[in-house]
Amino acid sequence: MHTIILPYFSEAEIDRYERILDHMLSMESPKCEFEFLLSASPRTEPSDRLMRSASRIAPASHLHCPTQVFGYPFGATAMFWDSMRHVADMSDDNNGFALWMESDMCPVAADWLDRLDDHWQSSGDVLLMGCEVPDVYRDCQKKFRLYRPFRHRPIEKKRWIARHINGGACYRRDLIHQVSPEYQDGIFDVRLGDLLREQGGYSSTPAIAFSTLDRLNHDLRDPDKVLLHGYLQDKDTFLHACISGEAVAAPSPTVERRVFFGRFSTRVKPHPSEAMLAAILEAKEPELPALKIVQRQAISRTEAIASPAPTTTQSQQSKAA
User: Fold this and answer.
1) Reduced to 3 states, what is the DSSP secondary structure of residue 250?
2) Hey, where are the domains in the chain?
3) Rounded to whole angstroms, how far apart are CA atoms 214 and 274?
4) CA distance linking residue 237 with residue 249, whole number of Å
5) Which of 78-82, 222-226, 270-274, 307-311 shows the lowest mean pLDDT across its residues?
C-alpha cells in the first residue's frame, strides 16, 4: 500500500490539486494499491471539495495537522512530520511508500505510480527515493575585497546547497520511527540530507525530476521521467503545460527601477532563488535510466527507535504565529 500525501494551506492549492486529480483520473488505473492523505495546514479547514475529488480515484482521508507552526519553510516541515507520524500510526506494514506530492508536481506518464512502485521495490532497505539535489557551489569573494590588504585574496568556493533528496519524494512509511529527533528539527529535506550523507539509505531515481517551463518540452519526451516538479515556476502555468502537453513560453522576469548615483536605471530583477535553481540544474549529472541506490550503513538504530518523536521544538515554537 502506498500513500499519496497532498499537503495544502489555501484554496489556490486545493484548486491545483483538483486539476492534478482530474489528470490522474484520465489515466489508466494503477495496478498497485494506494490511498490519499489530505493534509490540511493548521490554519486551513479540511476540504470536502478535495475529498470528493480524491475519493473518485482511491480511498482518501483527512488530516488536520496539529502542530502550530506557520510560514515557509518551517510550517511545511511541521506539516511533513505531522503527516509522516499519521502514516506510521495508521500503517499495518511498511512495504510501500508515502509520496509527499506538492501542488507543483504533476504525473506525465500513464503508468507513473506503477513505475514508482517498481523502482521502490527494487531499492531495498532505503528511507526515501526521489530526485537527488547535488552539492551546489558558488564563487564568493572575501569581504572587504576592495580594500588593499584584501584585494588580491583568491575567490573562495563555498557550498550553497548540500546534497540531499528533494522534498517531493517517496518516503518509508515508518520514517518517523527510523529518524532520531535531532534530524526532525530544521528544514525536513535538508536535515534528512544530513542524515543520508552520514548513514546512506536512499535511492535516486530518474522517474522524479525537476523541470522548468523552458525545458518542459524536452522532459515530456523523456521516457524515464514520470513525475515532474516545477520548482520555482508559475504553478498554474506549469500544471497546464504538463497536463496539456502544449509548448509554453517562460514568463518574462520582473523589472525593477532603482536609484544609482542620483539617476534612475532599469535592471532585470529575477526571483531571488532562480540563480540557485540554475545552479542545481547545471550541477546535476545526466540522469541514468536506472536507480542509484546507496545502501544504509550497519549502524545502531536504538536511539531512533527508543526516542519518542518530538512535538513542536523550541525553535519551531519561536516561529509559531
Assistant:
1) coil
2) 2-132+164-242+286-317
3) 13
4) 10
5) 307-311
**Which residues on neighbouring strands pair with residue 137, listed in sequence order?**
159
CA distances from 46 to 17, 50, 102, 170 (A): 14, 8, 16, 23
> What would the pLDDT profile of 265-307 be if each residue is shown by its tens digit?
555 556 556 677 777 777 666 656 788 889 887 654 434 444 4
The amino acid sitting at 128 is L
Give the H/E segment covering residue 93. none
> H or E element: which one contains 202?
strand 202-204
CATH domain 2-132+164-242+286-317 topology: Spore Coat Polysaccharide Biosynthesis Protein SpsA; Chain A (3.90.550)
pTM for the full predicted model: 0.81
Where helices occur in the chain by DSSP H, the ranges are 11-25, 48-55, 74-90, 112-123, 175-178, 188-199, 216-220, 235-244, 274-283, 302-306, 314-317
